[in-house]
Specification:
Its cofactor is FAD. This is monodehydroascorbate reductase (NADH). The protein is an alpha/beta fold. It contains ten helices and 26 strands. The strands form six sheets. Strands 1, 2, 3, 4, 5, 6 and 19 form a seven-stranded mixed sheet that branches. A five-stranded parallel sheet has the order 8-15-9-10-11, with helices on one face. The chain has a five-stranded antiparallel sheet with strand order 22-23-26-25-24. Helix 1 runs parallel beside helix 6 and helix 7 crosses helix 9.
């Protein structure tokens, strides 16, 4: 028993939805495309789970944040897939893959064959047990990777209002969940082994700004140590968190955000792996010519820096999805994937964007005491990275374009003096070979009223560009 398709997308996350829309735009025929997903729902905008979904008022709920509303695109509901003849095979796990025979075998015993396979399996959340700590199955220990996790987290939060939460991890999930917990009137302590939050991206100076802001909201930080064990009550609920430094934290709930691991298991020994993911070329094609990979699972060449990287962010998932379809459908008209690394987040009334690479000398500018501020990274005499907190749409576009152009920087002190003006000036210079930089949408939700006046001013300009997205995520009123 089996089915055959021209194109199969394995994985039903953000990348799958964006690829489906691109296939339709390029004229895919009815019955040619199939999406296989372990989740029981059609692809959705995963960033909503750590932002709008966790709000205590007017929370985001499906179908409001199905792809591709995160980039001001069409909302792809199950009805949309049916109307376009795309087969959604949901709630289905593939237990084995044979890339030579071009077949996938589901746990139900069905064989699905393809001519071209797009791997969009993403990644899974790392569990505490992988670090020697048991307790992930406790009813008040939460992770956040998919819709089921988010629903569980909301239920636990609602039972803990006024109580205490311990957040394990200081990265994206930890920071965004901590903000949501505070807004849900829960006392938060964050625990992580690094010297500061967002250790993979932020410098200590940038991190200090955000940590101070979180402290002003009541968040406590315990850094330089890790979880060693839990205390449980007679019902198996966690009542305390024990840290390696000897500290004990009483708690009503725990949120764990300690990283992810790409889902490559089906293809180990069949495809070339690198950087923890599936290695692809500039066309996003794997070591098997009929197999492509996109999103978190793909390790692809970043032309701007001349090396292969695997990037864990929704922007990369969206853009690699669009590009892989163009590569497959119109290979002669499509060049290699030329991606500018982009990361962003929005928590409380704060909003930042980062482009490029965080290597080399760092130059700071702006008002880090409460106004808009930013940083540049300069390596080998060139601008390679840019960060901005509290910018306008135009300012974010300027730092993106400047980073893409990699202008020469001869004097770091002069760069500091010019500040944001440097990126603006560079971005406005006409260049014969430059192409538009797709800044991308930032589907994070503002979570509360801004504390600083400059945010209100920036918001007037920025609001128009994100209003549609915020509305799509289920917001009924703005909080600028």
């Amino acid at each position: 028993m089996g089915r055959a398709f021209v194109y199969v997308i394995l994985g039903g996350g953000v990348a799958a939805g964006y690829a489906a829309l691109e296939f339709v735009k390029r004229g895919v025929s009815q019955g040619e495309l199939c999406i296989i997903s372990e989740e029981p729902v059609a692809p959705y905008e995963r960033p909503a789970l750590s932002k709008g979904f966790l709000l205590p008022e007017a929370p985001a709920r499906l179908p409001a944040f199905h792809t591709c509303v995160g980039a001001n695109g069409e909302r792809l509901t199950p009805k949309w897939y049916k109307e376009h003849g795309i087969e959604l095979v949901l709630g289905t796990r593939v237990k084995s893959a044979d890339v030579k025979r071009k077949t996938l075998l589901t746990v139900a015993g069905e064989t699905i064959s393809y001519k071209i396979l797009i791997i969009a399996t993403g990644a899974r959340a790392l569990k505490l047990e992988e670090f020697g700590v048991s307790g992930s199955d406790a009813e008040n220990v939460c992770y956040l990777r998919d819709l089921a996790d988010a629903n569980r987290l909301v239920n636990v939060m609602q039972s803990c209002t006024g109580g205490n939460a311990v957040v394990i991890g200081g990265g994206y999930i930890g920071m965004e969940c901590a903000a949501s917990l505070v807004i849900n009137k829960i006392n938060v302590t964050m625990v992580f082994p690094e010297a500061h939050c967002m250790g993979r991206l932020f410098t200590s100076k940038i991190a200090n700004f955000y940590e101070d802001y979180y402290r002003s909201k009541g968040v406590n930080f315990i850094k330089g140590t890790v979880l060693s064990s839990f205390d449980f009550d007679s019902n198996g609920k966690v009542t305390a968190v024990n840290l390696r430094d000897g500290s004990k934290l009483s708690t009503d709930m725990v949120v764990v955000g300690i990283g992810i691991r790409p889902n490559t298991g089906l293809f180990e020994g069949q495809l070339t792996l690198e950087k923890g993911g599936i290695k692809v070329n500039g066309r996003l094609q794997s070591s098997n010519s009929s197999v492509y990979a996109i999103g978190d699972v793909a390790a692809f060449p970043v032309k701007l820096f001349g090396e292969t990287r695997r990037l864990e962010h929704v922007d990369s998932a969206r853009k690699s999805a669009r590009h892989v379809v163009a590569t497959i459908v119109e290979p002669e008209k499509t060049g290699e994937f030329d991606y500018l690394p982009f990361f962003y987040s929005r928590v409380f009334s704060l909003s930042w964007q980062f482009y490029g690479d965080n290597v080399g000398d760092v130059v700071y500018y702006g008002d880090m005491s409460g106004g808009a501020f930013g940083a540049y990274w300069v390596s080998k005499g060139q601008l390679v990275g840019s960060f901005l907190e509290g910018g306008t749409k135009e300012e974010y576009e300027a730092i993106a374009k400047a980073t893409k152009l990699k202008p020469e920087v001869e004097d770091l002190s002069e760069l500091e003096r010019q500040g944001l003006g440097f990126a603006v000036a560079v971005s406005q210079k006409p260049t014969a070979s430059s192409s538009p930089v797709d800044v991308g949408a930032t589907p994070g939700l503002l979570l509360e009223k801004p504390l600083y006046a400059w945010h209100a001013a920036a918001g007037v300009i920025f609001a128009a560009s994100i209003a549609a997205i915020a509305y799509s995520y289920g917001r009924r009123r703005r909080r600028w």
